Amino acid sequence: MREHTTTTPSLAAQVVLLAAIILFCLFPFYWMVLTSLKTQIVALQTPPAWIFDVSFSNYYEVLFEDAVARSLINSLIVAVCTTFLAILLGTSAAYALARFEFRGKKELWFWFITNRMVSPIVLALPFFLIVRSFGMLDTHIVLILIYLTFNLPIVIWICTDQFRSIPREIDEAAILEGASQWRIFFSLCLPLAAPGIAVSAIFSFIFSWNELMYALVLTRNVAKTAPAVAVSFMEGYSLPYGKIMATSTLIVVPVIIFALIASKQLVRGLTMGAVK
Amino acid sequence: MLQKTQDLERGVPEETVNAGTASRGTMFSFLSPAVITLAVIGIAPLVFAIWTSMRDYNLTRLQRTPFVGLENYATVLTDSVFWDAMGRTFLLLILALPVQIAAGLGIALILHRPGLTFLKTIARLSLVIPMATTYAVVGLLGQIMFNLKYGVVNQLLGFVGIAPVNWLGHPTNAFAAIVFWDVWQWTPFCALVLLAGLTTVPGEIEEAARLETKSWWTVLRYVQLPFLIPGLTAVLILRTADTLKQFDMVFTMTRGGPGSSTELISLLIQRVGFRAFDQGLASAQAMILLVITIVLSRLYIRFFYREV
Q1: Cα distance between residue A20 and residue A30, in whole Å
Q2: Is A10 on the interface with B (CB under 8 A)?
Q3: Among A4, B55, B135, B188, which is 20 to 30 Å from A75 by CA?
Q4: Distances (CA, A) of B96 to A21, A274, B91, B183, B190
Q5: Which range has the worst mean pLDDT, A141-145, A245-249, B160-164?
Q6: How confident is the model at residue A1 (pLDDT cuts 50, 70, 90)?
Q7: Confidence of residue B147 (pLDDT cuts 50, 70, 90)
Q8: Which positions in chain A touch B159 (Cβ < 8 Å)?
Q9: Distance CA A137, CA A123 (A)
Q10: Residue B300: which of A28, A113, A206 has the nearest Cβ?
């Protein structure tokens, strides 16, 4: 094969490329915030305006006149409760997976991975019928429970990995002292696993906060989450662009903050640990 | 007994106190909360879906849901609408994934080079933003940015002399817009996975290779590529699964239209189940989708969790 003669791209070329990457990633975000600050008249200019009189009226309207404020609270309730439940139920299972040998371990992993990969529509169909027959459509608890199908696997996965990294000698010493497994779990391992638990909580929160399909299918008004409300603005003929983007900004900003905090673990979490 | 053999295989000395030993009761108490919850919310609905899929189950006439056996499955498997949606889903994957991997690899290689630390940190943090953006918001943003009259995409194209394109009103263009958006959102994911792969190359090996040759291609092909294979495999399987899951972004951007030009498999099932109210047929479609997913996750386990 002929040797490629190009070597390291010059420093200037690297700077240009990096700037292009940053611009490519951030431009839609910038455009979202920009549009959210436009009144409807400015938003409907052709060609689109880049410089205009900034107006915060969209934020005022969506928060105080439309259902957005309540939907953000709904999203928060659902995301916090499901995250709390996932941690409560998931950490002990993760400890068992990290520390004990038992039959069916492989099957359990298979189940978690399948839950990570399956399309939400597969569960949304039967869940809708079941929930409807119980008369529980449009309640928070239904969303909180169904979000566990993807949050529990992620919490269990991340925490298992974290518990594995705690040296077994610590437990062994405690066992010689006569401590029970539950005591070791609560007093020794759980505090040591705090960083992993925090990361899994962030993931669980982000996934629940971002979720749309279950929210569309299972809620109507009372428990409607913010993404579902944002989508409902798209019905009708004249689209309120500024309001849609103001709502979108309100939805996206907290997620981005959390994602940046967990950015070092993002890839590990998204690949269920296949990529460290 | 089993416990002991496994420990021996792992080379755990027999005489150490074994923290892995716990009574069945203890293990049960640790595992059952999560497992029972998942069984109730994850497995029971699936069993119900199998039951539904074998009935003529329409939301408009629930008083009569006769058992029809495998008729729904036969309908799905011979239904061109189903296969067209499947075809579109894989077309999206085939068009977007090579671009994501190529661009992702390029980005990873740039970020892997030493120097310009500050700019590279900014770039790495910027990569997080597309991935974290709520999928539904990406779709809404797409609808606004790709708008024929008010969209910024046509404005930017105008700067380089390209006439306005009717992105969302034309079948092929709408699909192109979705591919573009998928590339925007998931190229950073490929970049970060591949960057993680590049950092696993031992420093000495890479340095030795760079002394041998000045060609980045040779280094990539013969030194770095073997370390990138696990990441590439993960990307391949996960992107396939995520494209089969893809709903939020496309639903908010095009609702599957115009016509059915962007109706991916998850959108089709949602339409059949909740807008045509044919839960029986939709459940049969969902079960076929589930089987494909199970194959994918088996593959994933095979590659990445051999030792658990």
Answers
A1: 14
A2: no
A3: B188
A4: 18, 22, 8, 6, 12
A5: B160-164
A6: very low
A7: confident
A8: none
A9: 15
A10: A113
Q: Look at the block and give the residue holding tokens 């040591």.
A: A192
In this complex, which of B133, B244, B304 lies closest to A274 when CB atoms are compared?
A: B304
Q: Does B303 sit within 8 Å of A274, measured CB to CB?
A: yes
Q: Do A101 and B3 touch (CB under 8 A)?
A: yes
State residue B91's pLDDT score.
Answer: 95
User: Which amino acid appears at position A142 of this protein?
Assistant: V
To the nearest 10 degrees (0 to 180), the angle between helices A11-36 and A241-261 is: 130
Give start and end residues of each alpha helix (H) in chain B: 2-9, 24-38, 44-53, 71-77, 80-112, 117-132, 135-145, 152-159, 171-198, 203-212, 216-218, 225-245, 248-254, 265-274, 279-304
Q: Rounded to an integer, what distance in angstroms lies between the CA atom of residue B116 and that of residue A255?
A: 28
Are A120 and B247 an interchain contact pair (Cβ–Cβ within 8 Å)?
A: yes
User: Complex ipTM, two decimals?
Assistant: 0.87
Domains and CATH numbers, chain A: 11-57 (no CATH), 67-270 (1.10.3720.10)
Beta bridge partners of B58: B278
> Alpha-carbon distance B264 to B100, whole Å?
19
Which of B26, B197, B213 lies closest to A181 in CB terms?
B26
- pLDDT tens-place string over residues B40-93: 988 889 898 888 888 888 887 777 778 887 888 888 888 889 999 999 999 999
Residue with tokens 């005591």: A183
What are the pLDDT digits (tens) for B81-121?
Answer: 999 999 999 999 999 999 999 999 999 999 988 888 899 99
Domains of chain B: 17-71 (no CATH), 76-304 (1.10.3720.10)
CB of B141 within 8 A of CB of B135?
no
Which chain B residues are closer than 8 Å to A156 by Cβ? 34
Q: How many residues does chain B have?
A: 308
Where is average pLDDT lowest: A45-54, B16-25, B85-94, B158-167? B16-25
* CA gap A133, A140 in Å, rounded: 16
Contacts of B34 in chain A (CB under 8 A): 89-90, 92-93, 152, 156
Residue with tokens 């690949």: A271
What is the secondary structure of A149-212 as a DSSP string? HHHHHHHHHHHHHHHHTS-HHHHHHHHHTT--HHHIIIIIIHHHTHHHHHHHHHHHHHHHHH--
H helices, E strands: number in chain A: 15, 0
Interface list for A 72-91 with B (CB within 8 A): 88-90
What the block records as the tokens of A78 is 């659902």
Contact A248 B107 (CB under 8 A): no
